[in-house]
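I hope you will forgive my troubling you with a question about protein structure. You will find the record immediately after this paragraph.
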Amino acid sequence: MRDRLFCGVDPGASGAIAIIDAESEIVGVIKNSATPADLSDFVWSHTATPRLDALLEQVSAMPKQGVASTFKFGASYGFLQGLLVAHGVRWQTVTPQTWQREMRCLTRGDKNVTKAAAQQLWPDQKITHATADALLLAECCRRRALK
C-alpha cells in the first residue's frame, strides 16, 4: 500500500482530477466530464491511503463569461470542494499563476505550455489538454509536501 498520494484538481468543465504517488507515478486520472458519482467513487477509492493531499485550482468568474457559464463553472467548483471535504481529503486552493510559476510553466493563456510541461514529466503517458493541469497540480502538491 502507498503511504501518501497527491491529488490535483482542475475544476474546469474540460478539466480533471489526477492522483500521483510520492515517486510522481500516475495512480489515476478522471476527467470532470464523468458523472458526479464516478468522480466521487474515484476520489473515494484513493482515500484508504493513509494520507491523500490535494491542490484545488482557485478559480473565479471570467470577464465576458455568460451568466449560465458562470453558474455552471461555480457549481462545478463547489461540487469539487464538497467532494474533497466529504471524503476527508486534506486540501488547499492555489491560483493558476502561483502553481504555474512553481512548476515553471506560466501559460499566459496558451494551454499548450502546460500540456508540454506535463508531457516532459511523464513522457510515457498520453497527456491531453484535459489532464495536463490536473497532473501538474498533483505534482505541485507533491513537491510542496516533500520539501
The helical segments are 36-44, 67-86, 96-102, 111-121, 129-145. The chain has a mean pLDDT of 93.
